[in-house]
Amino acid sequence: MRRLPTPPPSSDITPEARYLRRREILKSAGLFVGTAAAMGTGLVALTGRGRRATITAEPLPAGLVVPSASAAPAAPSSSAAARNPFTTDEPRTPYEDVTTYNNYYELGLDKEDPARNAKTLKPRPWTVVFEGEIKKPQRVDIDTLLKWFPLEERVYRMRCVETWSMVIPWLGFPLGKLLERLEPTSRAKYVAFNTLMDPEQLPFQLTDVLEWPYREGLRLDEAMHPLTMLAAGLYGKSLPGQNGAPLRLVVPWKYGFKGIKSIVRIALVEKEPQTSWNMAAPREYGFYANVNPQVAHPRWSQAMERRIGDLEKRPTLPFNGYAEEVASLYAGMDLRMSY
User: Fold this and answer.
1) Which of 84, 98, 181, 183 is deepest in the core (most CB within 10 A)?
2) Spatial distance between the Cα atoms of 219 and 242, rounded to a whole number of angstroms
3) DSSP notation for 66-124
4) Minimum mean pLDDT range among 81-90, 109-118, 139-148, 267-276
5) Is cis: bond before 125, omega within 30 of 0?
6) Threshold 0.85, pTM exceeds
């Protein structure tokens, strides 16, 4: 029996309510300690605003330079207020929350499980296979791959299909640059991705929650878009296992389940590839999965979202706020049918 994401009640999504209660319990137990200068007080302490992450992570491999957000590619500038889609001035979700509130079913079904179980995932040694409709098929060690391109920091909004959201500073490089290097053939129309298949490292692959390994896909023009990236880190550190170490996909205008984790295979293909959640529940999870407040999930509305750390909901933005950059990719398409 496959377990699908829990539909939210009218007031909120159940997992998030449980999450906020958990933080309040920890606060009462004395784990959220310190002065107002260190942690904040009242709602600030509860919501996570104004506090620094206390979790540490492994540094990025030697030789990799981490730029500041200001070094990310800038949008064309015509005024001082020019739009830059590669960053945002919205408050960043604290590192502690980004790394302890996760969907990674291969490491557990509850939000806290991936962080608890991620020690089984070994991101080194690691290789990624590039194959299919490309002129340069090859298998590449992850550390070699990460030296092919300069790492950029991109501060993106991330919207989960379950109606919660985050703002995350990713470190990585544009997927399009990698695909250009691999030289797609004229038959390449889509990009297919696979997660590692290894129950010793990802023990919940022994369950039948989904058909393993996890699979995702993009249309080639989506994959080549400048916003689409492969992330190897966040908050200036290597990706933790629970966030998809050592390499994951980030497509900020799509729901989070499109961001496949722990990638071991990237193939360019001629036909639309199968994707895990679409295979499991095609009425609920489409291939495109663009954030669209006007298209409800069959079991809940997508019109509003709750930013992790906030108490109030906010309206969901079309394409997660990136419509100016990506809406043209879908010109002439019925996005209610191609959801």
Assistant:
1) 98
2) 26
3) ---GGGSPPPP-SSTT---TT---SPPPPHHHHTTS---GGG-SSTTHHHHHGGG---S
4) 81-90
5) yes
6) no
